[in-house]
Each structure stands twice: as C-alpha cells, then as structure tokens.
Amino acid sequence: MGAYDGAYNSPAEIATYSLGLLGAGSHTINIRCTDSAGNTGASTSASITVTGPAAADTTGPVVSNVVVYPGTIYTTSTIIVNATGSDASTGNSNISTCQLQVDGGSWNTMTAIGGTAYNTNVTVNVSYTVGTLSCGIHYLNIRCTDSASNTGATSSTPIAVNVIVGDTQPPIVTSLSVGPSVKQTTTVITVNATGSDLTTGNSNITSCELQVDSGSWNIMTAVGSAYGTNVTQTVNYSVGTLGPGGHTVSVRCTDSASLTGTANTTSITVADGTGPIVTSLAIGPSSIQATTVIRVNATGSDATTGGSNISLCQLQVDGGAWNAMAAYGGSYNTQITQNANYSVGTLSTGSHTIGVRCNDSSNNFGATNSTSITVEKGMVIITLTSTPNANEVAWINYINAHTSPSGYDWSLDNVSVAQVTGGTVDITGYKIVVLADAPASNVALYTQLNNYANSGNYVVLLGAALTNGPLQLGIATATCTSASSKTQTPRTAHYIDTGYTIGTAYTMHSANRAIYYCTTFTGATNISTEAGGATRISIGDASHRLINGETATAAFSTDGDIWMARVLDYAIANSN
Prior knowledge:
The chain folds into 4 domains: 2-50, no CATH class; 172-270, Immunoglobulin-like; 277-375, Immunoglobulin-like, CATH 2.60.40.650; 377-573, Class I glutamine amidotransferase (GATase) domain (Rossmann fold). 9% of the residues lie in helices and 41% in strands. It is built from 5 helices and 39 strands. The strands form 10 sheets. It has a 9-stranded mixed beta sheet with strand order 30-29-31-32-39-38-37-34-35. It has a 4-stranded antiparallel beta sheet with strand order 5-6-10-9, with no helix packed on it. A 4-stranded antiparallel beta sheet has the order 8-7-11-12, with no helix packed on it. The mean pLDDT is 93.
C-alpha cells in the first residue's frame, strides 16, 4: 500500500491501495503493517460485497506535470524528464507503464518514482534520463498504459527542447596594436588589444595575457570594464623598454568556459637611437713629460643607452683626427660594454685635450668624453744671472750629459733669477726646479720657490746652493758650509740609498772634493752625511725641498752617479 502523504516516516500513517475492479459477490480484505524494527502486526480484516458487473475500463490514462531538467540545456547537459501518469478520471485502473519517445524514435520505459510503483496505483509519478542531445530543437512524447491494457494518448503537445550549444571555442584577439609608432631602446612600449568571444561561444572574457618573444605570459590590464563581465574586453599592458632589434609580441585571452585562444602575434623592430657613453677614461702615467709615452684606457658602454654592442671606440688629441682604439678584454661587436686602449705616444709640453667616443652596432656615435692633461717640461735650473757661474755650469753639463735610468725626462732649461722674479718665466710649467747656487736673499724668488714646493713639486738644491738655499727655504736655521771629502754615509732608509747599508761610508768620487752640508737642517729625513760626522747632513728630504751637497760632477764614482741619478729621479717621481 502507498503512504497517503507519499512516504512512510511516522508512527501513524494513512495508507491507500487501489484494488481496481472486483467481481460481484463478497470479498475479504486483510491489512497488516510492519514497523521500522521489522515487526509485522496482526492483520485486520474487512468484508465487502460487490453487486452487479464491474464497469469495463476502455480509456487509457492521461499524462500531466511534464517537467524537463535542467532549465538551460547545453550539448553537454544530462537531460532528465519527469511526468505524472493517471487513470483516475479515465477508468480508475492502475498504471502499468509509462514510456518516453525522443524525436519519433523508440519508446523507452520510464521509472516510477516518489513512492509509487507500477500496477499499484491509478496515479504514478515517473522519470526518465534522456542523457545528452545534439544542438537544435527536439520533441519529447510521453504515454502511459493502464492495467486494462489501455494506452493513453501521448502528451497533447510535443515538448520542444531548445538545446543550447555549450561554449567549445576559445576567444579571439583583435585590434592588437603596439605603440608608439617609432620604437627605440629608450621608448616605453605599450600594447593594446581586444579579446572577444562574441562569435566563438559568447562567454565572458576572464583574462588576457601578453608575451614578449618567448618569455613568460603576463596578465594584461582590463580597460573599461572588469574581467568576467563582458564577452568583449579591451586590455593593455606596459612592456617597458626593449633591446634593439626584432621582437615578437603575442596576446591570448581566456573565457569563462576556461578556453584559451590562439595567440595573436605581431612583430616589431626596436631601434637603438642613442650612442654609447664613455666611462673610466684614464690616462697614464700620472706624471707626464715631453718624453713620456702616453697611454689612454677607456670603457665604452651601451648598457643604459640602447643595449647594442660596441663596434668601435676612437681617440682624438686636441681636436685632431679620430684614431681607432684597440679593443681588449673582448672583441668589438660582441658585447655592450667594451674596454679599449690607445698609445698616444709623446706630446709637446703644455696643455692637451684627449677625447674618446664610441660607436654601437646600430651606428650611433655617443658623446665625446674629454679630459685635459698637462705635459710638463722636465727640469729648469735657475742661475743667479743670465751667465751661469762655474758651480752652475758644472751641474748643467752633468745633467745634459746623462739620462734618467728610470726613463724620466731630464730635459733642462736654463733661466735666470731675474727672469723668474720678473715674470718672464713661469716655473710652474716644470716638473722640478734645480738651483746650483742660491742668492743670500731674494724675497720674490724664495716666495715663488716656497709656493712651488708647497704645491707638491720639488725644489732641488745642489752643491753651492746649500750655502743660502736651505735657510731661505725654511729647512735650516743657519747658512750651510762645505768640507773636503769623498764619502757619504747613509743614515736613513730612503729611495736614494736603497741597497746601501745604513752607517757605512761609501766613496762618491775618487778624490776629495767640496761637499756642502747643513748642521741645522730641519727636514724630516736625514738621508746621508759627509765624512765629518752624523750631524753634517749633505743629502736630506724636507717637504718637497731636497738638498744634495755634492759638487764633484766630473769625478763621480759609480755610486756617486747612482745617488745623483736617484736624487733627480726621486724628485721628478714625487712631484705633481
């Protein structure tokens, strides 16, 4: 029997059962119930009497309450049809079966549901799973048959099921543009595009992505509306700057059906419109004289001005012709940063301008990096008058007859005190200043000499110049004197006495000659003393003021020549 309310679910239930037609006469009806514990109670009997012949059922049941699920049907949807078959008003026979037909095809038996069963009720709820259907309009017919073998008419109006095709096509990308029209390595590149699913499934666009060359995919920015709200979506993306040459820009979009379309790809060319810069411009050696071979090192880089390889670096002296520099640490046209060098050779004394520029593989010359250098004259000897005295001539001849063992410029100019104090000669254009004799007083001269030494250039006092020079230059507290001797004794380790033993006397010349010395020398370094004792300083260093009391220029021994050469070379090497 069927629960009246459709389900057995309470301690007290009303149950119903349709007996259908019975023959005339007396009939006994027994009813029993079973609870959820599996206990079946005693049956209850009832007697009925049927009089006269039963009315014959000649009309089939009717179909109603047809419902198709889901409400919106896609080609991927599973379609379920529910309906009700009833004979209550058409003969009161039990429903024995209900069937469903799709598009005039075969009839398929539907399943009784909702607590009803075939052949037990005059009204039965039924269901059938159709499955998926192809795109288009379909017709569903339902019919039922009762226990009297009467099949009712199919549902009076065929059910038109409009099956909407599911989105199986990804969106397309249109209106792809890359700006600006002129693209250089310093240009910020922006990409605009439109993703649309309007003709490929009508789903909303959920994302668009951009790829440069074969790099990673980057989410683009939605413009005008948010992702997931429209079937057509405008997007953009700022790529930033790109290196020179050809590049590909690709854009693809994905719709709400999780379908990603084929990328729309365009090619662009980025030009390098800026020349490389020159960095690390260095000129050596630090001390440059007329005999110095000048070498220039520089670095050209396009790393921040286009990213092209360096194809050439050139050097120019004083606005002259451009000369190709030699690449080192790598070849031209292979890297965006290139080291280069050039041997200028020697230059005349005075100021010069060195300029370096580089060219990149996009044929852009960068700005010239220029620096100024001063080629100094070697030495100048200041004589007391325009006609050098014997002391001065001896030293002039010695210097002119010798060369620096270290390769320094020993070229020597001869000027008078009057030329210096009168402004005719500017001693600042020389590497060092030499005096072989010195006036007892001359404020103008010694002021210039002290200023020169204080600027970092050496004043060298030789021989007789020690008589007055140290006192006037402030490195002695009294005039100095001389003694006849031939040896020097190193007292302090210094470049000049390198390799010689401190405290040991060394012969500077074969016979005794006048050696000047100072007993009141105030300089920081007592390099050597003459044979008379440890306080008789003949070679000393005092803040860019160097004294050497030797006079035997024509009779120097090997050691004498070595020490004399070192005096001049040390002064040159340690001058600005």
